[in-house]
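Appendix C reproduces, verbatim, an entry submitted by the partner laboratory led by Prof. M.T., so that reviewers can inspect both the input and the predicted structure.
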Amino acid sequence: MKSTVFAQEEFHTNSSSSQSSAQRISVAAPAAPVTTASYKKPTSKKMVYLTFDDGPTKLTDQVLDILSKNKIKGTFFVLGEQAQRYPEVIRRIADGGHVIGNHTFDHEYTKLYHNFSEFWGQIKQTEEILRNITGSRPDLIRAPGGTFGHFDQNYFKLLDQGGYTVFDWDVDTRDSSRKGVPASELIRNVKQAKLKDQVVVLMHDGAGHEQTVKALPEIISYYKAHGYEFGTLSSKVKPVQFSVHVSAVYKGRAQPTEKWITAHVTPNAALFKHAASLILQAGGVETEMKSGEYELSSGHYLVPLRAVLERLGATVLWSNTQQSAQVSWGTRTLTVRTDSNRVELRRKGDQMPTIYQIPLTSRDDAIWIPLRSLLELLGHPIIKAAAGPDNYKVIAL
């Protein structure tokens, strides 16, 4: 068995749903912005933002049909578990020019508000599901049940630091206040709310919200009659955020360490910044990695193992018991062991693996590995690297 230590790499570029209904009741609260981001200047236009939580479901198609008929767009805060069930509806939302936001994976309060790392994990889990379906990462977040009584100041601070914008709402239709709230009551709740220049309306397209679908055409007509235009939320829209009021049950929760924040939150903002992408060609396949999906430091590329290799056509399997990943591509198999920075290479016909020591890091359930080392081990050495005005390009055999 051969053991090899890879030099500190690399090359240099030329430039630098079964949940109880009670848990899904939204909580009204006074709004208070908690971020210092730069937003669009107010205009004389009155804007209403129709938002839909807890989907997608079969009802979402009906909502999309109504929006299309009225030639308006909406913002959909979706659950990861529902996106997995209805990927075709997620694609329809995106293809229709609507905006998709992140509503966590499973909407379970006890987990999400136990500590920030659990909330963060569900945001990242849903984010990857949506990226795999649409090719894009949502930077908008809505907290299940709203932030009031759930978020402490650290939730707001760390999500802002990670590149996200959190949106609560101004107008609650109260369609989740109990089961089967009639459409007439939802419409009345909207009409009783104060009219402002910017209004964010909370509705739900989750299972059991047929009355919301029924009420939607009249809600749209009401805002049209009052001279509103219909928009979609974005990080450039000043967010509605409820004031922090943490109930006693959450006051003693553990806060993440600086080490955890540095590893998970700090580099995350790069995912949403406009910066050069990495074009990678290897094994006759080309893929593009957006800013934040790779790292470049002193000319050395680091990439997330599964994300890059699955795009290139390799198979990657993770073993929880052994804390290792197994990669199969062509005639080569790699076993990547995160606990020892060890990679075992087997070529077809090998009796024993060759062992290499390679610097590995783990964060957000992903293994980050030097790109050059990875490609060389898999039999695709880099033959050219260049940097252009809009992207970096790496070509391997």
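The two ends are 27 Å apart (CA to CA). Additional entries are available on request from the coordinating office.
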